Amino acid sequence: MRDDWNALVRADAVNLQGVDGTSTFEWFEAIASAFPEAEVSRVVVAHEADVILGVLPLVIDQSSRLGARLVAPTELYGGRNAPLLYSNDPAILCAMLGALDSACQGWMSLQLTLVANGEAERTLVEACKQLSLQTTCGAEQLSPYFPILDNADEFLRGVSSDLRYRLKISARKLAEAGVIAYRKFTHEDQAQELMENVLTIERQSWKHEAGTAITNIPRQQDFYRELFPRALRSGLLSALVITLDERPIAYNFGVTHCGVFCSLKISQVEDLEKFSPSHLLNLELINQLRLTGVRSYDCTGSSEPHKLKWSNSSRHYARRQWLVFNRSAKGQFSFLSHQLRTSSKSARDEKTDVVSGAI
């Protein structure tokens, strides 16, 4: 199903309202191989004759004694996602939601995260309405993105003045320190070397001391060891390392699909942080992505000030988590329990706000 699956992963390269490369078969396969909680999984497929119209991958969480919770694999790690549909036809999604009982008998809820106010979200709401399935959605989480533009000069004019100055100084000082080179990783047989470069840089970064580096998180190491060869083989991964006198000093990698680059990880060695090699590397990556037809850079994650310095045309998309509940007694109990927890949390937050205001 790999080719049929990936053909349904259609992105919106301008407004980023669609899914991204983390919805691909390769990403799902890496999650299923790396994460123990994804060991039990299902893929619900809608088809008409030999034509695949929809794909809905699921991880089955059996930790509750009441019944199974269904989770989109990208809830474990992913970006902009949704059920993969040939068209935004609620009937296709209705067919797949109706098959959940066959995929996992006694399921209680389905958890997935969608772009807020996008077509996928509207399709889900309509399908659940037709099937009389109750739903809830969480708060919006904003992520920034920016256009790569048509040429390097035009792009640089949109970079903040302080970042432009830092890039200029960084290029000069690093050139004075030694020989700068950029290493691009494009082939499956380079996956192990890329992983070694990433870990070497991470061990020398401030993140390692803080406990947030890939080197501190075994599950992330496991995931990227599974992802790198698959993503390099399919052309999904864009990865670049900058070296100084052949020493790896910064890396940047992400997934590229349908004209959108989604940043996954970027880091640099701490002893050269004053030279900002990661900034130089990011600019080089952007220039290389432009040559391959990439139109947008998805910063992913939260909206932080340093991400917004890269473009005066930065915009945001919002994601929010949805829960769909089964019509069964256990599903309805799960819905009521969720509503009660949400109400209690809101009451606590409101009380905290009142107290804080009084102080």
How many independent structural domains?
A: 2
Task: Determine the number of helices (DSSP H or I, runs of at least 4 residues).
Answer: 13
Q: What integer value in Å does the Rg equal? A: 22 Å
Broad CATH class of the largest domain: Alpha Beta
- Determine the CATH topology of the largest domain: Aminopeptidase
Give the averaged pLDDT, no decimals. Answer: 93
SSE topology string: HHEEEEHHEHEEHHEHHHEEEHEHEH
Strand content: 25-35%
**CATH architecture field of the largest domain:** 3-Layer(aba) Sandwich
Cα(first) to Cα(last) distance is: 59 Å
What is the overall shape?
elongated
Q: How much helix is in the residues?
A: 40-55%
Q: Unreliable runs, pLDDT <50, ≥5 residues?
A: 352-359
So, the CATH homologous superfamily of the largest domain? Answer: Gcn5-related N-acetyltransferase (GNAT)
Largest sheet: 13 strands, mixed
Q: What is the count of β-strands?
A: 13
Plain-language structure description:
The chain is an alpha+beta fold. It folds into two domains: about 1-140 and about 320-359, Gcn5-related N-acetyltransferase (GNAT) (Aminopeptidase, 3-Layer(aba) Sandwich); about 150-295, Aminopeptidase. The chain is built from 13 helices and 13 strands. It has helices spanning about 1-5, 25-35, 90-100, 100-105, 120-130, 150-155, 160-175, 190-205, 205-210, 220-235, 275-290, 305-310, 330-359; strands at about 40-50, 50-60, 70, 85, 110-115, 135, 140-145, 180-185, 235-245, 245-255, 260-270, 295-300, 315-325. Strands 1, 2, 3, 4, 5, 6, 7, 8, 9, 10, 11, 12 and 13 form a 13-stranded mixed β-sheet that branches. It is elongated, with a radius of gyration of 22 Å. The N and C termini lie far apart (about 60 Å).
